[in-house]
């Protein structure tokens, strides 16, 4: 409602503070497309890295009281910030590796569309194979020695749950295995948090059974946050839950070290909790969940109100985490890095199991939309020409055939031009005006590729 109120008058300047927080993925993507079409100036604070990548053409970083402007999107910012850090020689080696890792991740992202037609079945198998390989690429830095996990982890047998006029689950079956990393996505109100509550045992199903293994120890991060006692200090909050997390080879990470890892320095650890900001309280809450050394983590919107630096820390911790993980998040970048497959809540108790991360899912859904559109066009065409023999009826007009032949060449040329422009951004001698001009040109080329690719798919479907 607040967004609708802000957008309806088509302002020339729009100031947004964390606009994607608490929005579902469909709304976030709609917002990206809206801003791409509208001619308005945006000034926003956001930790949504895909949003930064796709919407912004300039990033201003506030670091230790100094503003650093970067004329480009999130990938450009990462690259130039790394160069600045190296020049200043103030950051430690691990921080530099973190930015390189982020940049490599951005460059490896799967494309939403390709210029060649592939069957969705082949795509599906490729996505599944990629999902299985993704975790092997990560090098574990923090070898957590969590409690032994038995053969039985978590089983859901014909679980049903509904509220008046709102079905959530209908005879849902799933058996979790060791090391599973599941993301949960869907529109707001489709029952994602209710699903997590049923798993954690804080809510009961209407029917069916939830069987939890004897060795399973849940760590549950909810949206409600942490309850603080009056006069408590940060370190005391953590020590109420535990003093250390055991690591392999007899080592351990203490409560103080965990807090330091999540950006609470020694001085901050002895501050009163009442002095903490909203984001700092979220960080502290995360630490209380992790210090208990669970072997099954359940995270409900853990990325809300966290800054990008903290998100990087959380992602590194979760990539090292050897247990099971199930997470609800609207942060697509976070989901792409952390999970191997998805539960997609469609509403009306429809839940799909998709083997891949969010980018894989988005690419697969895009291909489905294009196929459905082509099928509908074919149906309309057949009904119009039902008086003719199907064999005699041409599937494409002469002009459409000519258009189809030239489209792929045009797309390939645009793709080549896009790559050339992206390489130009790495030139450190570019002025601000030159970077602005390149950003505008790159956006126009990307839009043209999308339009021509969609049209190519439509014509290709009519040829089959």
List the helices and strands and how they pair.
Elements (H helix, E strand, L loop, with lengths): L1 H6 L5 E5 L7 H13 L3 E5 L3 H7 L3 E5 L2 E5 L3 H15 L4 H15 L12 H15 L19 E10 L2 E11 L4 E6 L5 H9 L6 E6 L5 E4 L12 H6 L4 E3 L5 E3 H7 L16 H13 L5 E5 L7 H13 L3 E5 L3 H7 L2 E7 L2 E5 L3 H27 L13 H27 L7 H32 L1
Parallel strand pairs: 1-2, 7-13, 7-14, 9-12, 12-13
Antiparallel strand pairs: 3-4, 5-6, 5-8, 10-11, 14-15
Helix pairs in contact: 4-5, 6-13, 13-15, 14-15
Protein described:
It is built from 15 helices and 15 strands. It is α/β, with parallel strands linked by helices and 464 residues long. The strands form five sheets. A six-stranded mixed β-sheet has the order 9-12-13-7-14-15, sandwiched between helices. It has a three-stranded antiparallel β-sheet with strand order 6-5-8, with helices on one face. The radius of gyration is 25 Å and the shape is globular.
Strand order of the largest sheet: 9-12-13-7-14-15
In the predicted model, the low-confidence regions spanning at least 5 consecutive residues are 112-118, 387-393
Describe the largest sheet: 6 strands, mixed
- Alpha-beta classification: alpha/beta
Strand content: 15-25%
Q: Helical segment tally? A: 15
From the alpha-carbon coordinates, what is the Rg to the nearest angstrom? 25 Å
Number of strand elements: 15
How far the N terminus sits from the C terminus, by CA atoms, comes to 45 Å
Helix coverage percent of residues? 40-55%
Average pLDDT metric: 82
Question: SSE order in H/E notation?
Answer: HEHEHEEHHHEEEHEEHEEHHEHEHEEHHH
Molecular shape = globular
């Amino acid at each position: 409602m607040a967004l609708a109120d802000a957008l309806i008058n088509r302002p020339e300047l729009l100031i947004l503070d964390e606009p994607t927080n608490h929005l579902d993925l469909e709304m976030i993507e709609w917002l990206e497309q809206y801003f791409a079409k509208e001619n308005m100036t945006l000034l926003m604070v956001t930790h949504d890295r895909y949003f930064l990548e796709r919407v912004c053409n300039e990033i201003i970083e506030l670091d230790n009281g100094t503003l650093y402007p970067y004329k480009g999107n999130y990938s450009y910012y990462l690259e130039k910030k790394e160069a600045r850090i190296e020049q200043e020689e103030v950051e430690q080696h691990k921080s530099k590796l973190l930015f390189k890792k982020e940049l490599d991740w951005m460059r490896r992202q799967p494309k939403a569309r390709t210029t060649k037609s592939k069957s969705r079945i082949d795509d599906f198998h490729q996505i599944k194979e990629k999902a299985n390989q993704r975790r092997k690429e990560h090098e574990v830095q923090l070898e957590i020695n969590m409690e032994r996990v038995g053969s039985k982890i978590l089983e859901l047998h014909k679980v049903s749950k509904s509220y008046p006029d709102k079905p959530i689950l209908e005879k849902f079956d799933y058996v979790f295995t060791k090391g599973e990393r599941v993301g949960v996505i869907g529109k707001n109100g489709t029952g994602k948090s209710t699903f997590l509550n049923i798993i954690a045992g804080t809510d009961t199903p209407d029917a069916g059974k939830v069987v939890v293994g004897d060795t399973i120890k849940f760590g549950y991060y909810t949206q409600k946050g942490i309850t603080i006692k009056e006069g408590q200090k940060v370190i005391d909050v953590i020590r109420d839950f535990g003093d250390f997390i055991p690591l392999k080879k007899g080592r351990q990470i203490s409560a103080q070290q965990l807090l330091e890892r999540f950006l609470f320095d020694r001085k901050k650890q002895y501050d009163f909790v009442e002095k903490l900001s909203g984001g700092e309280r979220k960080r502290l809450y995360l630490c209380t969940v992790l210090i208990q050394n669970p072997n099954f983590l359940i995270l409900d919107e853990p990325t809300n109100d966290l800054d990008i630096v903290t998100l990087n820390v959380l992602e590194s911790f979760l990539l090292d985490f050897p247990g099971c993980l199930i997470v609800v998040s609207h942060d697509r970048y976070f989901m792409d890095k952390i999970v191997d497959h998805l539960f997609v809540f469609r509403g009306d108790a429809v839940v799909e199991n998709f083997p891949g991360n969010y980018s894989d899912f988005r690419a697969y859904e895009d291909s489905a939309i294009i196929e459905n559109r082509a099928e509908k066009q074919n149906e309309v065409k057949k009904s119009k020409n039902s008086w003719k023999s199907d064999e005699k009826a041409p599937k494409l007009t002469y002009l459409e055939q000519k258009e189809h032949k030239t489209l792929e060449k045009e797309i390939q040329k645009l793709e080549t031009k896009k790559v050339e422009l992206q390489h130009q951004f790495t030139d450190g001698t570019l002025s601000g005006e030159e970077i602005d001009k390149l950003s505008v040109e790159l956006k126009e080329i990307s839009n043209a590729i999308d339009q021509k690719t969609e049209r190519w798919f439509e014509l290709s479907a009519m040829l089959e």
